[in-house]
Amino acid sequence: MKASVYNQAGKEVENITLPKEIFDVKFNADLVHQVAVSLSANKRQVSAHAKIRSEVRGGGRKPWRQKGTGRARHGSTRSPIWKGGGVTHGPRNDRIFAVEIPKKMRRKALLMVLSQKAKDSQLIILDKIELKTQKTKEMAKSLQNLPCKSQRTLIALENYDKKIVLASRNINKTSIEDARNLNVLDVLNSKFLLITKDAIKTIEKTFAS
What distance lies between CA 96 and its chain's CA centroid? Predict the structure, then answer.
């Protein structure tokens, strides 16, 4: 598959052939969905926690004797039916939502999503990203010159670059990640994937080897 390479001014400088093992993988919607759901579940943070009757304070003494009062029998004021008692079927922070997916399946799904981005013309390749300063204005101007413009875009770098990260993190609808840390969920959540030529080599080395 052929792809255009742009410079930061938005001009096409060359055409390259994308590696088939990354950008020509047949799409399997079921596998991509399974991996995306597992990644969402693994990111879930459980903070809500309701105490059960054994965790609430008090309730050690029997409220009244078992018989002879005409009232219903009770053993503790911390029963769920009492005010101030434990909660029945409430949220618990010991619940585990994590879903294990084999590494080969995760990698395969990522390659499928990358291939689909290329087929849908939502893959933008830059020859390089160079900034004179780490100001957001300079990076935003470069993005406006490219087909992604103001659309939601994920920038994948071949290596961590502090200057580029600082210049990109405050741009609306723009996220940035190292190419070796790409995952299905991040790619799906962005309409465009912006990568450099060197980042393709990083992806190939990390996920296709």
Answer: 18
Tokens 């010991």 found at? 94
d(CA 36, CA 23): 19
Q: Are 179 and 202 in contact (CB under 8 A)?
A: yes
Mean pLDDT (whole number) for 65-89:
93
Question: What three-state secondary structure class fits 194?
Answer: strand
Q: Give the closest residue to 114 by CA, choosing from 4, 21, 23.
A: 23
Distance separating alpha carbons of residues 72 and 55, to the nearest angstrom = 24
* This model's pTM is above 0.70: yes
Measured distance CA(108)–CA(103) in Å, rounded: 9
Per-residue pLDDT tens digits for 134-154: 889 999 998 999 988 889 999
The SS3 assignment for 178 reads strand
Phi, psi of 183 (to 5 degrees): -140, 165
Query: Do 83 and 138 fall within a single domain?
Result: no
Q: Sign (positive/negative) of CA torsion 69, 74, 75, 79?
A: negative
Measured distance CA(49)–CA(46) in Å, rounded: 8
**3-state SS, residue 95:** coil
Q: Show the domain range for 16.
A: 2-26+102-208
Between CA 48 and CA 89 the distance in angstroms is 12
Domain count along the chain? 2
Q: Other C-beta atoms within 10 Å of 73: how many?
A: 11
